[in-house]
Amino acid sequence: MGLFDRVSRVVRANLNAAVSSAEDPEKILDQALIDMQEDLIQMRQAVASAIASQKRMQQQYNQAQTEANNWQQRAQLALQKGDESLAREALNRKKVQLDTSAALKTQLDQQSATVDTLKRNLIALEGKIAEAKTKKDMLKARASAAKANEQLQNTVGKLGTSTAMGAFERMEEKVLQMEARSQAAAELAGTDLEMQFAQLESSTDVDAELEAMKAQLIGGASPAQSQLPASAPSTTTTDASVDAELEQLKTQLDQL
To answer: Could you tell me the keywords of this UniProt record (predicted)?
Structure first.
């Protein structure tokens, strides 16, 4: 295979691929229907021309038949008048007209068959165009639906990887994080408040106990002291008992 053939095949393949990818079904259908309408106009013109030719041939055939009859009558008239040579000439003219008439009859039959064929083709073409109009609307609707479905599928397919969808998902995650931090802050605030109240309650108990101890040390009659048990011994009584016990121990030692 030569280099030129290979290059030619590659070029034709690329052109075919480019044309195929550029074909829009809706536009192609409209253009095809326009072409069919133009073909219909040309077919009608051809049928009209064929019918006109048929009519002209029919007129020429009829005229040749009329001329042949006229020369027949003239030949009879000349023969009746005794002019045989004139009658012979009239018969020759009649023969020419008959030959012309026969040729026209053959052409007329052929033209009639042609006109009939053209008429049938015209009727068939009109039917195909009417069917094509119906199919065109249906195919355009199907093409539009297919195109819309393809665009929808492409859009859905791109949602997972598109920048906009990614940004949307990031913002959703950020909102969730903000809500979690807000909830945690609220819980921490509630815990701090409980701890503060617990410290206050604890400090109150310690202060009360401290006041009670101060009152015991001072020994004064204070409201805190009045709250102490009545059976608690005083400091003086305790010292006297200790001295008595000490004296008793000394006496025991002297007796030894």
So the answer is: Coiled coil
